[in-house]
Amino acid sequence: MPNALHRTNAPLLAALLATLPAFGLHAAEAKTPLTIDEALKASAEQHRPVLVDFQAVWCYSCYYMASHVLTGAEWNDVQRKAIVVEADADSPDGQTWMKKLNASFLPSYVVLDEHGNELGRISAEQPREKFYPKINAILATGNTLDRLRQKASRGEPNAVAEVLEAYQARSEGSEGLRWFAALPSSQQQGARKNARVNLALDQLALAKALAADDNATVIANAQKVLAQDIGCQRPYVLDNLLDATGKLPADERKTLLAAQRQPLDHYVDTQVLIAKPACADQRSAVLASANLDDAVGDQAAASAILDRAITQTRQRLGNNLASDRNLADNLRIYLLRAKRTAELDDYQRKLIAAYPDDYVYAYRYGRNLVETGKPAEALPYLTQAADKAYGANRLAVALQRVKALKALHRDDEAKKVASDVLETNGPWFPKQASALKAALNV
């Protein structure tokens, strides 16, 4: 699932490349929209909805969607129905619209009408067989939240569940629970006979507790959700439980988490590490499994799941890292989590060679070299990354270059790098800009 800005579960890692426009307009039209505002203007002229693809160059779930889902005749058909525009999560335009739409996961696919009103969304990666029925239903019916609420008020089957699930997709736990509580009591009672409704209510209660940073309530609600058949969401909810139990006494935490071992093993064995996975996000499942093993004190099991994932991923990739970027990036993370440092060092150089046209792998490797006390070795990689970095990631790359140059006592060069990037950046990304300025004074 997510690489999320807060994930169902992967935090925003700083940085990324300039977004390339998707070819969402008809071939006869000369201009492809570069921004969401441009796409909305085109929407008003063409009377077609806008599909915003929020993504990032570091987003492994975005790699999966690009390689496995947003391809072929079905995707071409979507692009005929809607004006598709890619939005870089680290660009000013992307960040502005993500905040406006409360889009907290990457990737997110949000359908807008010509006025910028949301018609529906899909959060996080999905296999083809789930993505296309959802996106085509949104494009066909324009299922705005208001329209769903109207359907629910008429007592239509599953309509209450659809409304609650829409609130869940927006991470609006409190709002969704308030809406349900305002329904007539008879309608609430009838809706609670629907398993989808009960699961959605439990998930909204969990979202509300997470937003309130209420660990005790997170623990209670996460356990309720995990006791149900939640399919591909299991590792994300387990992450919530692992985080919330972090400050419990060791024995109490171990006992509480041990109950999650069997259902997670079953999930991994039947839906993830198989020839045809039912769940797209292998990485989160593998990492959640290793983290659960560590939390209950079974380091051998943690090593075993990582070794299994590494072996399987290498077999699927063969010698062609460019064949599947999602898998290639998963392997990097598995090696990192398994602390197979020598293998990871060699592998990162191979990734840079396999993906020479973006900044992210050169940046990560350069940053790693800076952090391990090898600034001279880091500089060529960081310079390579700087030539391609854009938006917030431009500042992230500059920060590492400054650290490397200062470690080598090349202070004048460090000041020049920072000055040039800050001038180019203008008023955007003040937090990253402040960190860059602070690095000059260390």
TrEMBL record:
Domain Thioredoxin as annotated: residue spans = 14-140
Residues of the signal sequence? 1-27
User: What are the recorded GO MF terms, alphabetically?
Assistant: isomerase activity
Alphabetized, the UniProt keywords read: Isomerase, Signal
UniProt keyword RNA-binding, yes or no:
no
Q: Which Pfam families match?
A: Thioredoxin_7
Domain of life the protein comes from = Bacteria
Key word Zinc present: no
Q: What is this protein called?
A: Thiol-disulfide isomerase/thioredoxin
